[in-house]
Design a protein that fits this description.
This protein has two helices and five strands, in the order βααββββ. It is an alpha+beta fold and about 100 residues long. Helix 1 (about 10-25) packs antiparallel against helix 2. The chain has a five-stranded mixed sheet. The chain has helices at about 10-25, 25-40, and strands spanning about 5, 50-55, 60-65, 70-75, 80-90.
């Protein structure tokens, strides 16, 4: 079975996003929203090619929007494993620079 892994950037992005949700929403709403988002991301293990190809950002990158609020970018490995690259708030301009390794 395929696995979903998180990059360091994705972990940091998710931490920032979840902190914002906890500040802006009622506790029960924040918990439900984040739980739904994580469950939705876990579905990529079963259906990794659901996202749209985004080779304009970097080779092999795919993206998928969650409830028109969050955009997840990821890659799919040869064995079908998914690596979450970044977690972006909807409306953010996502560019190739977001996927370059620091020099």
């Amino acid at each position: 079975m395929a696995r979903v892994r998180w990059s360091r950037n994705a972990d940091a992005d998710f931490d920032g996003y979840s902190s914002w949700i906890w500040q802006e929403a009622a506790a029960g709403d924040a918990e439900a929203w984040l739980g739904a988002l994580l469950a939705w991301i876990d579905q990529l293990a079963d259906f990794p090619r659901l996202g749209a190809p985004r080779d304009d950002l970097a080779r092999g990158v795919r993206s998928r929007a969650f409830r028109k609020s969050v955009v997840i970018t990821y890659t799919v490995g040869r064995r079908g494993d998914v690596t979450i690259l970044r977690v972006f708030g909807h409306g953010r301009d996502i560019t190739a620079a977001d996927f370059r390794s620091p020099a």
